[in-house]
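Lab notebook, bench 4. Still working through the backlog of constructs that have no structural model yet. Next entry is a single chain of 317 residues. Request: give me the structure tokens for it.
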Amino acid sequence: MTERTGVDDTTGTRAAPGDGAGPAATTAVVSLGDEWENGDGNGGSPRRPEDGAAKGVVTAFGQTLKTLRLREGLDRQEFGNRLGYSASTVASFEQGRRIPSPSTIDRADEILNADGLLRLWKEEVERAQYPVFFQGMAVLEKEAVELLAYDTMVVKGLLQTEDYTRAVLNVRCPPLDEETIEQRVVARLARQDIFDRRPTPLLSFVLDESILRRPYGGRSVLRGQLEHLLLIGRKRNVEIQIMPIDRGDNPGVNGPFTVVTRRDGKKFVYAEAEGIGSLQTDPERGVMAAARYGIIRSQALSPRESMEFIEGVLRSL
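Model written out:
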């Protein structure tokens, strides 16, 4: 049995040892935890750095921010008023306890006449909201030319409404604190700019029928989520399909998974169970997962039939 550890040269992520279960033992696997559905925030709410290395980046950025603020003769209150944050939040930025959004960094650069100095930090600071082992996946999602996702328990994070996201996070066990929930809501919603990105990626989602009937947050939240699916499903680069529960030969019995194809054609497979995720980089695994997804998609309702099906469920609520 061979185990691969260290840094995988295709993603820049740190590979964990294989689990010893056949071919998986020789596949580079990155443990992602539940950050796959929680990362990549571009929103306005401040976020927390997730690991030691990230904290170093955020601390250095904060020191630079403070130096430029003092150079301009602004106290935290005045700077915060111009930036749209409280003085305490400005302090948390400068002390590396919170991560400003990319738009906040742009605004700070203008206010402090930094001539692009703060903007140089944007990519590193944004990446710092993830653990080191998830940063490669965050890059992959941003660079994806195709994303295929099969889900069985909840609506895919990329398709969630704000209310649905908050409802799902509220039922986590053990429970999350309110600040963490709000940070994750902002982060998850921000990732949805993938739908309008240029060049346009191809996005395909197959949702198990049971997802449409599970009322996280109550019927009104579910109703809003179903309406959102109908809107997203109209986008030319998006296909949403429903897998009816009466499909007895569904090959998705192993659970939900996502296949991301990068610009160079390489495929990566993400799967999650019990809040622990893995990113498989082995080319054969990527090809096989994409083929499995193709079978699942062929057995699901067509996109048009799926939209009609969602409309029917919506009328029944």
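Notes after review: Residues 2 and 26 are 6 Å apart (CA to CA). The first strand starts at residue 6 and ends at 7. Flag for follow-up if needed.
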